[in-house]
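Note to self: user wants both folds in one dump. Writing first protein now.
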Amino acid sequence: MRAIYGRRAFGWAIGAALAATAAPACAQSDKMEPIAAPAQPNAIPLNTGTLPGATAKESWHSQYGSTFTRNVTDATLTPFLPDPAKANGTAVIVAPGGGFRTLSMSNEGWDVARALADRGVAAFVLKYRLNQTPADMAGFERSMREMFSGTAPRPRPAPGAAANALAPQIADANAAFALIRSRAGEWKVDPNRIGMIGFSAGAMLTMATTLSNGPARPAFIGDVYGPLAAMGPVPADAPPLFVAIAADDPFFANSGFGLIESWKAAKRPVEFHLYEQGGHGFGMYQKPTTSTGWFDAFARWMDMHGWLKRAG
């Protein structure tokens, strides 16, 4: 797999994505409250293996009026299939964010998938494996405070770490694409019309999966408030790219637009929305900012490319 970032750039981006988990996305309370794991009857195991060395069990909490999970050690894929009368044959894998420590399952996962299904798109929420955090909520909150204060140890990545740091998550994404293609007939999906959209850390995973020369080969990709630094050479057949971010995003809005420029330089399709306000993590939250319109813009972009028209 080609190196996705240089060592310094990769470490900075991971750190910023981690910090993003505590950025208030709306007026809801930022207090973390443990909750029971919600029923997930449709979640399909991806069989990519249990994360090596994992000791803490998967747990769930609420924050900002949303639902989060952490300590995910076994990846799953949850289908949200459209009404057959609306189905158009396009599919999208949805990768929530959370700094590779948590996953914002409702705001950046299930709610996005439901909105896509309402447009006739078969959506699949990817619950990918995560870096371990303390099992107890108090320990988790303490570790996050240490991270934000800068007191947590952050060792310098070893040579080659940039290329391998996301290997488990990329394997989960590749397995998701393979599963959808293997059941394309059952789910009424065109195997050549499977895209991927990610948020924050999920956007990093989307880009890394696309640029890793692996088997995923998405038909199109969406990067919502992910890093905008160039991620290396853009393949001549790179998929169309949709990018949305707020200008007041405290993590990724001030590092230039290398990702956009690299797609343009490669003469590949790219659409870029820079919203004046919205902060980080706006997702599907309804806010009094134009960033709330990102999903409609994404749907119009998909329609422009023909992905909302019925396949065949």
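First done. Writing the second protein, which came from a different request thread.
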Amino acid sequence: MTEWLAGALDGARLHLWDDQAQTPQIRALDGADAQTVIAQEMDRLGAERAALAGAEGAVLRIPCKPARPEGSAHQLRLLPKLVQDHPACEVTPREVALIAGLLKARPQFDGVVAITGETTLWAQISAEEVVSITRTATGRLFAALGGGHPLPPDAAFEAALSETRARPERLMRELAQPMPKAQSLLGALIGAELCDTKPWWLGQQVLAFGPFATALSHALSLQGVAATEGAAEQAVLAGLRSYLE
């Protein structure tokens, strides 16, 4: 018998773990509801409880702790989303799971979590609370401009990063030039992002997660910031498991 299941929605796919696996099954939902899918899996496997990051659970207002999730039928616990009113911004349930996993491993963490992807969430953490957040569109722009899969930072990345950090007002002019190599494009975009998010990283320790974490942590280290890269999938699973205890 399976004791528990844990699921995290990632776009149109559901990452699903059970108590025997550290690597998730990845299910294409094809229009199905994630809550229905995990409830069916609970019945099929005889799981007594499950946690899901992705369906609509409670809404908590920042500043707040990633609180205990709501229970529903079949002892399925739905993780909350966090909402900031001014400026308006949200932390998705999957991002809540990641932050909860980080705080499970490092309850004294005081700094900033940067969760990269289509957008990048910058979340300031203090006293186990999410204190303030902002979000940038670096990943979305990189994909729209044909950047492809992010490659490790190189000299071209660092040159574009430095140029945009020094003159961020020139970013749109730079993007109008013949298509730069992917590392130059990413360096320019992250340079602009660092100008915009300076209050979140200046003087902070930063943990970066996701597909652009290597590039972002490297860029921050060049600014003298104590930045490291974390393992997103493991943190999400740890956070989900903390809600099952």
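Dump finished. Worth passing along: The chain has a mean pLDDT of 92.
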